[in-house]
Design brief:
alpha+beta, five-stranded mixed beta sheet, globular, 139 residues, Aminopeptidase
Amino acid sequence: MRTLEPLFRQAKRHEHWRFEEICDWTAYFWNRGTIAWVIDDWGVAKGVCVIKFFRRLEQFLKPFVHEPNGPFCMIELLIADGPEMHGWLLEDLIRRWGWPEIMMWDRGDRTEGGAPRMYTRAQFMKLSRRFTKGVTLNV
């Protein structure tokens, strides 16, 4: 976690959290297998992605929900060093969990009106190929 900490701090929600708070928050996702990360051969963190699954739309507001058979998946955190890392992180999680019906993603300042964007599976696959520059996501 010390290695991944600088990536977590790039997200506004975590920038002022104590290290222990980041660890506690991350443990929930770690224990459910809904986190992926990349640390290079030199011990440098290159990316981290955290997702959550749920059945009903209003559950996206709950910080800790895990219903892997639900139709919704929300990207809670995606910080990566370039498009190749974005692609690897998402591909790793998709291999584990499959493509959900609906993806949700709150991209902070890039999200209009403060609500997360919702994508169908096909829309998100198209978006994923675009922001990963087609490097991966052949799942």
